[in-house]
């Protein structure tokens, strides 16, 4: 079993020891108050200036946000226009390769229909029936 160590002998009186503890606590209290006193509040002019800075910052952010929004809308319009143009170019290219008329008419002329028709060769069976 362990025994508690004996306290060192202090030849001072109880009053002196208590006074030392009291002085130590008092100095700690004064130190904490001194740090609190170093921090001072803002006066009205400083508060007004900080509010002005905040308001200006908010206005700038709003302006930037609106500009970004406009740029995004313009980009989307440009992309949609570009894709429409690309689609039209592909359709025109297909019409040229298939020899289709480039006009937008839905009716095909008889000449166009006949140009795309294939002529079949007569088969032997058909030739034999005819003979």
Description:
It is found in: Nucleus. It holds the Pfam family FAM192A_Fyv6_N. Residues 3-76 form the FAM192A/Fyv6 N-terminal domain. The protein contains four helices and no strands. The protein is an all-alpha fold. It is elongated and about 145 Å long.
Number of helices, counting only DSSP H or I runs of 4 residues or more? 4
First-last Cα distance:
134 Å
The backbone outline, from C-alpha atoms, is elongated
* Beta-strand percentage range: under 5%
DSSP strand count: 0
Low-confidence stretches: none
Rg, alpha carbons: 49 Å
- The helix-and-strand class reads mainly alpha
Task: Give the biggest beta sheet.
Answer: none
